[in-house]
Amino acid sequence: MLMKQRMLFMAWACLACGMASAQAPNTLTPQEKAQGWHLLFNGRSLDGWHSYLQKAPGRDWSVHDGSIELQRGRSGRPEDFADLVTDGEYANFDLKLEWRMTPCADSGVMFYVNESPKYAQPYETGPEMQIADLACTKPDSRVLNERSGDLFDLISSPVEWVNQAPQWNRFEIIAEHGHLQFFQNGHKVLDTWLWTDEWKKLVASTKFKAWPDFGSFRKGHVSLQGTEDKGETPIRLQFRDIKLREL
């Protein structure tokens, strides 16, 4: 019995030690700082972000419990839940973030977004790494090219490495001189090239052909999508630990 108690204590101590050493969200380790990473979200405010074609974040975006949070219904003023975009623009980068949502919701992370009155929405210029619940986001979770981790409406990931709501998920997007890689929860789900003849043919075969500048910009904003109204109401999305390293 004494030996069993000691073993249980040692197991608990190891677990506690691991928990204590886990990195807190919205922070950088000394190693990350040395590698050139910087936070796009400080965990306290929406500094560095604004809603698309607006000077500040829309009213439905806020900071809650160390996360960027969107809470909205199925109606309301579009400017209140307009997609959030970074103040800065990026060309070659490694982007990491965590997200979670209420069941059956829908969102995405866009990049190379060109912010101009010429374009009504970020998705008219910026490709998107899709966010959708494991099975119940209709129709996205049941359509190839629209599941979580896909390059939306363009390339489907072979396996859905997505945690069911309301668990946290981690995305990583690496874009370097046209070489695009997606990772979902540590698993590579996409590896392709932008701006090639094959890329142009792919875009031309989808709904994005309606926007001739889509996927053509080589520098742009990062955007968090808030304009989708799928899922149980009130719809809630959360993003945290958003960090980027320019390559």
From TrEMBL:
InterPro entries (alphabetical): AL/BT2_dom (IPR010496)
Keywords: Signal
The 3-keto-alpha-glucoside-1,2-lyase/3-keto-2-hydroxy-glucal hydratase domain, residue ranges: 36-245
Signal peptide: 1-22
Annotated Pfam families: 3keto-disac_hyd
Presence of the UniProt keyword Signal in the record: yes
Protein name: DUF1080 domain-containing protein
Species name: Rhodanobacter lycopersici
